[in-house]
Amino acid sequence: MLPAIRYVAVNVKRVVVSWSGGKDSAWALHLVRTRGDCEVVALLTTMNAAFDRVAMHAIRREVVEAQARAAGLPLWTVPLPWPCSNQHYETAMSQACKRSLSEGASGFVFGDLFLADIRAYREKQLAGTGLEPIFPLWLQPTADLAREMISAGLRARLTCVDPKQIASSFAGREFDAKLLSDLPATCDPCGEKGEFHTCVYAGPMFARELRIENGEVAERDGFVFADMKLNAPAVLSADGEGAFIGR
Q1: DSSP label at 11?
Q2: Residue pLDDT, tens place only, 108-149
Q3: Which residues make Cβ contacts (< 8 Å) with residue 69, sequence separation at least 6?
Q4: 217 - beta bridge partners?
């Protein structure tokens, strides 16, 4: 007589991923999807309403929308005024938390790496909301993490550079092994100290690669920004999902 089969219930946590459009949030999405105990409800992005771009990363709305389609997830956008006070930001994020709870989420995923003050701020903001802050990349050695991302097929370009920390010429460059070798020793390999921000366009978190091209490079407010544009028009497939011509 065969022994009875025992079924073990697995509690799957529904989560929202804080989405900047950059490599760290993309890798955090990949990790929570692959570890098996989380179901991602949506990507949540704050948008600078004055420029209709992701705050700080300066990624165009149409690019971040294409990222969400490639990830197969809804995109929730939170418009923020420019300039934006802490009070306005916290009010907007409080509304985002309420929406997350209404969709059955119980966790909020962040791509932070090692800045303790940032983590403490997020934990404080989520305290008492019913949403658990989750940091899947926390304290991973950033040199190893950067190489792991690249070797796994993540592709990204630098959209924002702090010229006080690294040369302006890094804006628009590929986030690849050559870039890692060219960064000054004082620069974190993942740019966690604000040295640079990225726009991800391919990787294991996406069903397809986005076709992007570099646009204008401009300096504003003490930072150097490289514009990223879709170079193939967005169309709708028969099932209503986004696709790209020539993908």
Answers
A1: -
A2: 999 999 999 999 999 999 999 999 999 999 999 999 999 999
A3: 241, 242, 243
A4: 226
